[in-house]
Amino acid sequence: xxxxxxxxVCVASALIAWLAVSATGRADPYPAAVLRALDKVTARTSxxxxxxxxxxxxxxxxxxxxxxxxxxxxxxxESAAFLEISEAGAEGREERLFTGWMFASSPGLSAMEHPxxxxxxxxxxxxxxSAASSASGGRSP
Length: 141
Known about the structure:
single chain, alpha+beta, five-stranded antiparallel beta sheet, three-stranded antiparallel beta sheet, 2 helices, 8 strands
């Protein structure tokens, strides 16, 4: 019961945050999301660029990006992606770990809870060059 209540509170918080973001400005859809994934056991991190509609694998999890929205430059910065994250389970079954919006500016607001893996949104991009810039924090090498 406590886990269910926690999930409901998380979903409600994410919905309120998304409504607040939407109310102050419009967000434009982008064709790809830049994500950061962490394996807590090995301390391995990866920056992943995932095209909307595609699935990428990191360790035992599969991350599907359903949409990625970003505010225009004249608005306060915010990127948000709707993700579906599953883990390979016993006998080839997949267990759904997370479904919902993740926000680049507030990764803890709607986070996936998992003992081994963390995933968060960095940015929404339109090209591979933009992903490299986004992953480095907008700095050129």
